[in-house]
Write a structure and sequence with these properties.
Distance between the termini: 31 Å
Number of strands: 7
Largest sheet: 3 strands, antiparallel
Structural class: mainly alpha
Number of helices: 16
Organism: Hibiscus trionum (Flower of an hour)
Strand order of the largest sheet: 1-5-6
Helix content: 55-70%
Main location: membrane
Shape: globular
Radius of gyration: 26 Å
Keywords: Membrane, Transmembrane, Transmembrane helix
GO molecular function, one term: transmembrane transporter activity
InterPro entries: MFS_trans_sf, POT_fam
């Protein structure tokens, strides 16, 4: 892989272009996240559960499709080009939404008693625009964080600290852009009922953001991927060869496993030391007799360790899904709650979908405070570049998300009780600020922690795919919200004496949304216990060994031996490996 002159490229000078794109793109994206449920409810005439599920399905699809962007940018084209291609798709989806919101002829008429009133050509255009938006936005999210991350060399102590700051400033850029979106754009759409203006502004802002990204090309460090180093292919090779070699006995010493030499053509950019977890996969690095050393007959220790790293990440990924299910409620049911509350601030009528400005303001203040004061202080104590480890940061967010859901249930009881007493005097919208504020702080810890964790722990050739795991967690969280709403409604309808589920069609005052929130709070507490186990089990990746000290062992000076266990008669057969294969001593103890 060709080396790029990095002296005048990369760093925060290059990242500034990325920060601008993130701010402009999230201006529309976050505004749509918090307000589309009302667009589906009052313009497209979906009922409450269907509008909530449509939004969670859209967001789930968006974050799931980040895997596509991550895979493409790790395999076929660089991350910069990937962002521009998917950016065009995203702008196209927003443009179609603008056209449909502008033309009354492309919108459905109201129908009573149905989950949705849209059909025919209107439905085709509606769902096509949503899918284009999901594909474009998801693809960008899969490649953009890693594009910024590769502007910093994590092996350089100064740039390692800068990499930790990069993810904090990335979240701050998102927060600043989102703050404009949930105030200005949301006010236009939900209060002035000019949905087409909101979508048009989002389209233009996103387009300008990608123009700015394109202008920054001379400043970027760009890594060109190759199909031969495709993450999916490398993972498949390890699993396939390990299964083929399942009857072979592992050598007594890990340094007898296959590893390519430093100067061998096609060598990866990093060497990952052997670890003792998932020893079954080590069988992919054994070379049996008469086997030709090809990617589908033998894998290097580094390649096996790449698969081990991704496998170790999966429990961490799974432990954050419930938190993102909680996030989905703040973008659906909490917005619908706010729409029934007193939204006056003096003479000004605050849009219900603008209430997320409260956690965004918190985050805009806390992120610089965290970065400028807490991190340097914690760094002196822990000697960790980020102040605290990424998994510790994620754990703090999980605790706060459980508290947020418990508070949300209490606020809903107060809101509903007041509605039953006197529906003309609802409680203030700002009661929702408690659950939003707590969850905003939780998101600050968890989102950045996950992005940095997946990026730093991932092998170099899989960093886009690995950072997409953050969005994959969000995707599963949104889809799980849809599943929970549907299943819990179905079950509670059957066991309730009234025959109604916890969340009724068009009337929140007759629903039991508080019970749903408390269900999620209890689930979050159980999930945190599971997370503690997964985090304590996880071993952080060791740094790559110094190549000047690493010495590859040529098999011409000594044969590699593979033992095959005959499980029928207990006989152990011994084979001499081909002399063309090289090995390297690469055992290092994992560090926490």
């Amino acid at each position: 892989m060709a080396k790029v002159d990095e002296k005048n490229k990369g760093g925060f000078k290059a990242s500034m272009f990325i920060f601008v794109l993130v701010a402009l793109e999230n201006m529309g994206f976050v505004a749509n996240m918090v307000s589309l449920v009302l667009y589906f409810l009052y313009v497209m005439f979906f009922n409450i559960p269907t509008s909530a599920n449509t939004l969670t399905n859209l967001m789930g699809s968006t974050f799931l499709l980040s895997l596509v962007g991550g895979f493409i940018s790790d395999t076929f084209i660089n991350r910069y080009t990937t962002c521009l291609i998917f950016g065009f798709v995203e702008v196209l989806g927003l443009a179609l939404m603008t056209i449909q919101a502008y033309s009354k002829d492309l919108q459905p008429t109201f129908c009573y008693g149905k989950p949705s009133c849209i059909h025919g050509g209107d439905a085709v255009m509606f769902y096509a625009s949503l899918w284009l938006l999901a594909l474009g936005s998801g693809g960008v999210k899969g490649a953009l964080p890693a594009l910024g991350g590769e502007q910093f060399d994590h092996k350089d102590p100064k740039e390692a600290k800068a990499l930790a700051r990069y993810f904090n400033w990335l979240l701050l850029s998102t927060t600043l852009g989102a703050s404009v979106g949930v105030t200005g754009i949301v006010y236009l759409t939900t209060e002035e009922h000019k949905w087409y203006w909101g979508f048009f502004i989002s389209t233009v802002a996103t387009f300008i953001g990608f123009v700015v990204l394109a202008l920054g090309k001379p400043f970027y460090r760009l890594r060109e991927p190759t199909v031969a180093n495709s993450p999916i292919a490398r993972i498949a090779q390890v699993i396939t060869v390990a299964i083929k070699n399942r009857r072979l006995a592992l050598p007594g010493k890990p340094d007898e496993l296959y590893e390519v030499g430093e100067d061998e053509k096609g060598s990866r950019e990093e060497r990952i030391p052997h670890t003792n977890q998932f020893r079954f996969l080590d069988k992919a690095a054994i070379v049996p007799k008469y086997s030709e050393a090809t990617p589908w007959t033998v894998c290097s220790v580094t390649q096996v360790e790449e698969v081990k790293i991704l496998t170790r990440m999966l429990p961490i990924l799974g432990s954050t899904i419930i938190m993102n299910t909680c996030l989905a409620q703040l973008q659906t049911f909490s917005i619908q709650q706010g729409n029934t509350m007193d939204r006056h601030l003096g003479k000004f009528n605050v849009p219900a979908a603008s209430i997320p400005i409260i956690p965004l303001v918190f985050m805009s203040i806390l992120i610089p405070t965290y970065e400028l004061f807490f991190v340097p202080f914690a760094r002196k104590i822990t000697h960790h570049p980020s102040g605290i480890t990424q998994l510790q940061r994620v754990g703090v967010g999980l605790v706060l998300s459980a508290i947020s859901m418990a508070v949300a249930g209490i606020v809903e009881v107060k809101r509903r009780d007041q509605a039953h007493k006197d529906i003309t005097k609802p409680i203030s919208l700002f009661w929702l600020s408690f659950q939003y504020g707590i969850f905003g702080i939780a998101d600050m810890f968890t989102l950045v922690g996950l992005l940095e964790f997946f990026y730093k722990e991932a092998p170099i050739g899989m960093r886009s795919l690995a950072t997409s795991f953050t969005w994959l967690s969000l995707s599963f969280g949104y889809f799980l919200s849809t599943v929970f709403v549907s299943i819990i409604n179905s079950i509670t309808k059957r066991i309730s004496s009234s025959g109604h589920g916890w969340i009724r069609g068009l009337d929140l005052n007759q629903s039991h949304l508080n019970l749903f929130y408390w269900f999620l709070a209890i689930l979050s507490c159980l999930n945190f216990v599971n997370y503690l186990y997964c985090a304590s089990w996880y071993n952080y990746k060791t740094e790559e060994p110094d190549h000047t000290e690493a010495k590859a062992k040529d098999l011409r000076t000594g044969p590699l031996v593979a033992e095959k266990e005959n499980t029928l008669d207990g006989v152990t057969e011994t084979y001499e490996a081909p002399s063309s294969v090289q090995t390297e001593a690469s055992t290092q103890q994992l560090i926490k």
